[in-house]
Amino acid sequence: EPEVTQTPSHQVTQMGQEVILRCVPISNHLYFYWYRQILGQKVEFLVSFYNNEISEKSEIFDDQFSVERPDGSNFTLKIRSTKLEDSAMYFCARTSGAVTGELFFGEGSRLTVL
Amino acid sequence: GENVEQHPSTLSVQEGDSAVIKCTYSDSASNYFPWYKQELGKRPQLIIDIRSNVGEKKDQRIAVTLNKTAKHFSLHITETQPEDSAVYFCAASRGGGGADGLTFGKGTHLIIQP
Questions:
Q1: Are B112 and B15 in contact (CB under 8 A)?
Q2: Cβ–Cβ contacts within 10 Å for residue B3, how many?
Q3: Fewest CB atoms within 10 A around its CB: which of A76, A107, B50, B54?
Q4: Do A100 and B98 touch (CB under 8 A)?
Q5: DSSP state of B93
Q6: CB under 8 A, 24+ apart: contacts of B57-62
Q7: A56-89 residue pLDDT tens
Q8: Which of B36, B33, B20, B37 minimizes the C-alpha distance to B75?
Q9: Which of B89, B99, B105 lies closest to A56 in CB terms?
Q10: Which pLDDT tens digit goes with each residue over B50-96?
């Protein structure tokens, strides 16, 4: 099955700036997810999104993060005021759409905060 | 919340030998256990998964075993090849395909020596 498409592939930003990462999934997938991976570390769950609402979020997903699907296609992750520790690879993911629920990751967006 | 421990952090084996990576989890409600392979600079890719209603699953050279009582699961790779070199992550969740995010282990860097 086709994967999700993420943009940008790499973004460099100054500390305190807002960043928006985008994910374009196939429209018939129900659940979408954001994960992050700090360089050399494990993959960490941020948030799941279903039917245009947040379903579950982790402790990492604090008030500086938000997700939305503004136009019914693009699925965005916004970081309001970036910090140095937000530097990471951010992966959008989708399930297979079946009950089995295998999770498939996009290529990722690398965020570098200076 | 769920906690997943993974061992070893680095594993070096001779080409053709077998490799075993072990994970333990803490949440007895977890019932979905995938394994991901991540090559340098790329996204995690699902290689095999197992659900709590089975004890073992095999796909060619890769197998996964699950012991629900002991809350641990393992990845077995037989006849290792150079292309098996990568970082492998185990993960656990309460239900694949739904809102619950995956909790990942810290990863095992598998090195196949020629």
A1: yes
A2: 11
A3: B54
A4: no
A5: B
A6: B62/B35
A7: 899 999 999 999 887 777 889 999 999 999 999 9
A8: B20
A9: B99
A10: 988 888 999 999 999 999 999 999 999 999 999 999 999 999 988 65
